[in-house]
Design brief:
Blueprint lengths: L41 H8 L23 H7 L3 E3 L25 H13 L6 H26 L23 H18 L4 H4 L6 H21 L5 H18 L13 H5 L12 E5 L10 H4 L7 E3 L1 H4 L25 H5 L5 H5 L4 E5 L13 E3 L8 H6 L30 E2 L38 E5 H14 L5 H6 L1 H8 L36 H13 L6 H7 L3 H5 L4 E6 L13 E2 L4 E2 L5 E5 L22 H6 L15
């Protein structure tokens, strides 16, 4: 059992310094300091603040890259209903009401706040020059605000702690501070930090908290808070949205170039932000987690090359991707979309190439086949010549003609794919459940965002060392577009400096604002959805806002933003309650013959063994099962242990109190 004043971070006082010109995310310090002397010099303060960088990959923050996708960034999108689980019985906990009350943990943690407050207090009497003290105060404000951003997102009202508390008094047992006050304090501190952090790149290194990082936190927070307030009936939404437009536009101007990648596929720069050996000096990357062989490694690539990869896109989310002419697939004028045939190759043809870097495109090859790739006459596989479509996406993405572990240096996404040690060639994708081998999917849309060919993998070992982004300008671009739209300020000029920058890199036609009307996407969320649940109103999403939200979903797919977004939009039931279904499948398909999941009867929501073709059945319908999203999930359960320790705390609506 813990008191709010019992902070584990106090142990971090015994820390060393970070070393000359080495970025904070690169190396841990080595010498020992004390609270008394910690803040008398730049280096000792730097050493004390080093552990706070762990906040940026804390496992309770859904956007934090940590270990592998299924342990970190993928879960936020899984909770949002963007991803489904291929495993029978792998239900979305929020759709099937299996989220249990919390007795402890649940992200209710103030240890970092205490650690930061010690530093802020120490700066008051420090003999450092004013500019250096202000820099560290700004860094402290950044981390303090960044953690509080998460706390109010989870719990709403939370105790605001901006000083070192005396555990021998009643100070640690205060009530929850109203959200209005906490949010305003976060905004005030981040704006102060933006103005006072200064430029200390020479001392801290390039991959450290700087003004752009503070601005990125401001951009993220103000969009979250502004839209939460708008759609959850709170005041002052425009105050936060206006600030989001300002700071996001500054970042857009500061980072005018987007990364275009090295490997030559359509939208290569988009995909390679998650598969590159180094993100140092990559355009648009503001802060990243650096991985180093034999020092800090992960399992991101490995987990997408074995049989443990269980997440996948559902058909509904695959349908969100535009065609390359910039039109939704259901648009009446869209002659580019060929997916009406329901053939998986037609569904992928001419789609937004960001889809190809998120979901493995379809293909078929013959292991030991005679029609070898021209690049390697001794290749272990040959093209499947039974149908020209089987090689269409191999030609687009490039052929893996080596199939080794590791593969060719610099080789990113290639087809065909193989398992982690390249000993098991995946001869066709989709590799539907029922076929043997790793990298299988029930829906047909296998997730491979972190897959690449150059990294060394080893069975159940963390050996991968591609860097992962923490802050990048693409998020600021999307934040700007959404906030401007919410304020009624999104016109063609706004589209050109935001959405259309992303589309140009992806190879998708520009957004033309004047053409987006009520008929632009017949599948737009028009409210009053039959699968809705809860007491919140199911409002209609305006056509332009729908397209901006679509762009956000597509650009940030697999990066952990989903559950934040569907909650702040007050649209969780729309995404989470939809029955998960896979690609269209026919028993008569000559290639994809194995489907052990069965076929969905879309009328009943049940598996139907009488059907010979239809969408693949993934999971039951939450509504048919009498379940669905509950509005209490918009805010997390305050751990009941904390309610027992502090009688001044109250519980969020719908969650059990101490007496219950």
């Amino acid at each position: 059992m813990k008191k709010i004043a019992k902070y584990t971070a106090i142990a971090a006082l015994a820390i060393g310094f970070a070393g000359c010109n080495d970025s904070f995310l690169d190396k841990a310090p080595t010498t020992t300091i004390s609270e008394v002397t910690a803040f008398e010099s730049y280096k000792s303060t730097q050493a004390y603040m080093w552990p706070c960088y762990a906040i940026l990959y804390n496992t309770t923050i859904a956007t934090s890259p940590n270990d592998h996708g299924y342990a970190s960034v993928y879960n936020g999108d899984r909770n949002a209903g963007y991803f489904s689980n291929r495993t029978p019985g792998g239900y979305n906990a929020y759709a099937f009401q299996t989220v249990a009350p919390s007795s402890s943990g649940n992200g209710w943690d103030f240890g970092w706040i205490y650690h930061i407050n010690i530093m802020l207090k120490g700066l008051e009497t420090s003999s450092m020059p004013t500019a250096e003290k202000e820099h560290w105060q700004a860094v402290g404000y950044f981390f303090h605000a960044f953690w509080y951003m998460e706390l109010i997102n989870r719990f709403g009202d939370v105790p605001w702690i901006d000083k070192v508390l005396d555990p021998d008094t009643d100070e640690p047992y205060g009530p929850r501070t109203p959200r209005d006050e906490v949010a305003n304090n976060i905004l005030t501190r981040l704006k102060w930090a933006e103005e006072h952090i200064g430029n200390f790149e020479e001392q801290d290194g390039r991959n450290a908290i700087n003004q752009a990082c503070v601005q990125m936190a401001l951009s993220r927070f103000t969009l979250r808070e502004g839209t939460w307030r708008k759609y959850h009936g709170l005041n002052d939404a425009d105050k936060y949205l206006t600030e989001c437009v300002r700071v996001s536009k500054e970042l857009i101007n500061k980072y005018p170039e987007l990364y275009t990648g090295t490997d030559g596929q359509p939208a290569a720069g988009y995909g390679e932000l998650w598969t590159s050996p180094s993100l140092a000096n990559v355009p648009g990357v503001i802060l990243y987690r650096e991985y180093k062989t034999d020092f800090l490694t992960s399992m991101f690539n490995f987990r997408e090359r074995n049989d443990q990869a269980v997440y996948q896109l559902s058909q509904d989310m695959a349908d969100m991707y535009l065609t390359q002419n910039g039109l939704p697939i259901a648009n009446a004028q869209n002659t580019q979309y060929k997916g009406a045939s329901k053939d998986i190759y037609d569904i992928f043809t001419d789609r937004d190439p960001r889809m190809y870097h998120t979901v493995t495109p379809p293909y078929s090859v013959i292991q030991g086949g005679t029609d070898k790739p021209a690049e390697n006459p001794n290749c272990s596989w040959g093209y499947d010549t039974r149908d020209p479509k089987y090689r269409k996406f191999i030609d687009i993405m490039g052929a893996d003609v080596i199939v080794s572990n590791p593969g060719k240096a610099g080789q990113m996404k290639r087809l065909p794919i193989s398992n982690w040690n390249a000993g098991n060639l995946i001869k066709k994708m989709p590799n539907l459940r029922g076929d043997n081998g790793p990298c299988s999917t029930a829906s047909g849309y296998y997730l491979w965002k972190n897959y690449n060919g150059w990294e060394l993998s080893n069975n159940n070992s963390a050996m991968c060392d591609s860097d992962k982004p923490i802050f990048k300008v693409e998020e600021a671009i999307l934040n700007y577009a959404e906030a401007a739209c919410e304020l009624g300020q999104f016109d063609q000029a706004a589209a050109d400096i935001s959405i259309n920058r992303l589309r140009k890199r992806a190879g998708v036609a520009d957004m033309e604002v004047a053409k987006i009307d009520a008929s632009f996407d017949p599948n737009r969320d028009k409210g009053n959805n039959p699968h809705w649940s809860g007491e919140m109103p199911d409002y209609e999403v305006a056509p332009l806002l729908w397209e901006i939200r679509r762009e956000r979903i597509v650009e940030l797919m697999g990066e952990g933003f989903g559950f934040y977004d569907v909650r702040r939009w007050a649209k969780a039931p729309y995404f989470i309650n939809r029955q998960e279904k896979g690609m269209w499948w026919s028993m008569d398909d000559p290639l994809y013959t194995a489907n052990t999941n069965g076929i969905l009867n879309t009328e009943t929501g049940l598996k139907d063994e009488t059907l010979r073709e239809g969408y693949i059945y993934i999971q039951p319908s939450p509504k048919v099962e009498g379940k669905g999203w509950i509005d209490k999930y918009y805010l997390y359960c305050v751990p009941t242990e904390q309610l027992l320790l502090n009688k001044n705390l109250t519980q969020n609506p719908g969650w059990p109190t101490v007496s219950e």
